[in-house]
Amino acid sequence: MYPCCLRKRSLLIISCFVILLLSCIAFTSDCCFSRSISSLKTLYLDGHFEFEDVHHASRDFGNRYQLLPLAVLHPKSVSDIASTIRHIWMMGPHSKLTVAARGHGHSLQGQAQAYHGVVINMESLKDQNMYGLTPKSWTDYLHLTVGGTLSNAGISGQAFRHGPQISNVHQLEVVTGKGEVVNSSEKQNSDLFRGVLGGLGQFGIITRARIALEPAPIMVKWIRVLYLDFNAFARDQECLISADSKFDYVEGFVIINRTGLLNNWRSSFTPQDPLQASLFKSDGKRLYCLELAKYFKLDKKDAINQEVNESLSELSYISSTLFLSEVTYEEFLDRVHMSEIELRSKGLWEVPHPWLNLLVPRSKINTFAEGVFGNILTDTSNGPILIYPVNKTKWDNGTSAVIPEEEIFYLVAFLSSAIASSSGKDNLEHILKQNQKILEFCAAACLGVKQYLAHYTTKEEWRAHFGTRWETFVRRKFTYDPLAMLAPGQRIFQKSASYS
């Protein structure tokens, strides 16, 4: 045994060594950052880099992860993006710089962030106006960038008819992980084209997209009805997305243990029978809301009303809960943004959003509903739960997007907001545990569920997510982004790491 003085001296030497080692690491890191910044400053660009005020690029809509980048690029041209990526590519595998494209920052788990890397502010590129035209396929929330939605899929209530956004693209301009600007389509560079669509930003940054458009309608007949029975609700939804559907938009949502529901609707919707509606009580019930929309021009209003009434007569909803509204097409498309404005005014928008989005095969949706709604979930006070079916035939199976194998599957989206509780309860932790219970239930029941806007932390989980498509995904990564520089926030690959 050492004398006491010797032990103290040994501990002192070890402590000094650790401090010296940490100082050396910090010094080396600072030197690397300084060299990276100096290197980026040598680039000739139409836009500019920001190295100081970069905190805005370390946050996103999910509001759970904050990863500070080294720099933010504000491009004024596609050439700025290509030059920056090519420069970092030429720096080789020893450079730790990574690159993330950030549009409106609507990602949930830090997917658009790049820790000590370069975030490209895609909003700096000029927008193209579409006068009198509208995309055939769009998302419920429009304040997003096209590149961001195409990197995932882009789903909403009209996807049953036109497919997701990625099924309505004619051509893409992409900057690959080598800094190459490549035009792609089904006939030109088709492997890159299909890989980028739903590719989670792994193979290139979308800088231009030619998408399918159509003349914009003028007005929308907007309808909500309620069901007590899930089987009837699902049966009607599936009937409505059939080939002869009379509606342009079909969605639904789940309501558990909410009060004053119909009174909340009256500011925007009118009950068809006010007296019957006033007698309906929603307290404590588990309800399923079917939301429909029919687009029309003013000179066709009478014919549209007759068509809608005929279609509604074939459904099995609670008759006293038929609520209608007529709004302009622009108002309907911007409906979620109106809710955002209201929440922002109350300070309830910039809170954590631990969303969970699932794609559930049709054959398992009843099992899912029975196990989750009213069992794992006891109320919907944390945010809406969307649920609606889509047709697989409207999806291009060659893209990178992962979907269930069945011909019809449901999107089920738990759009929770972790608002601070007055009782001091950790609402975020509660929602995360709830989400985990849902995933564990799906796994235990072998439902064949796939995550949409997926988030995993290990390669094994990503391999399981992609299944038989994993090898193709890896091949495309090695081909178009061999140093794994792009979209590090997805946590699929690590720069310069093995992909096998």
Strand order across the largest sheet: 12-14-10-13-11-16-17-15-18
Rg value: 26 Å
Query: What's the architecture of the largest domain, going by CATH?
Result: 3-Layer(aba) Sandwich
* Number of helical elements: 15
Oligomer: single chain
CATH topology of the largest domain: Vanillyl-alcohol Oxidase, Chain A, domain 3
The percent of residues in helical segments reads 25-40%
State which percent range the strand residues make up. 15-25%
- How far apart the termini lie comes to 50 Å
Largest sheet: 9 strands, antiparallel
The CATH top-level class label of the largest domain: Alpha Beta
Mean pLDDT: 89
Number of strands: 18
Low-confidence stretches: 17-28
How does the helix and strand content classify structurally?
alpha+beta
CATH superfamily of the largest domain: FAD-linked oxidases, C-terminal domain
Taken together, the total number of domains comes to: 3
Identify the overall geometry: globular
Write up this protein.
- The chain is an alpha+beta fold and 500 residues long.
- The chain folds into three domains: 1-41; 43-216 and 456-500, Uridine Diphospho-n-acetylenolpyruvylglucosamine Reductase, domain 3 (2-Layer Sandwich); 221-452, FAD-linked oxidases, C-terminal domain (Vanillyl-alcohol Oxidase, Chain A, domain 3), CATH 3.40.462.10.
- Helix content is 32%, strand content 20%.
- The protein contains 15 helices and 18 strands.
- It has helices spanning 4-41, 78-90, 146-150, 159-162, 190-196, 230-240, 261-265, 274-279, 301-312, 329-333, 335-345, 365-372, 427-444, 459-466, 470-480, and strands spanning 48-50, 71-74, 99-102, 118-121, 133-135, 169-176, 181-184, 204-211, 213-215, 219-227, 249-256, 270-271, 286-296, 323-328, 356-361, 385-391, 408-414, 450-452.
- The strands form four sheets. A nine-stranded antiparallel sheet has the order 12-14-10-13-11-16-17-15-18. Strands 1-2-4-3 form a four-stranded mixed sheet, with helices on one face. The chain has a three-stranded antiparallel sheet with strand order 7-6-8, with helices on both faces.
- Strand 6 (169-176) and strand 7 (181-184) form a beta hairpin.
- The protein is globular and about 75 Å long.
- The two termini are 50 Å apart.
- 38% of the residues are buried.
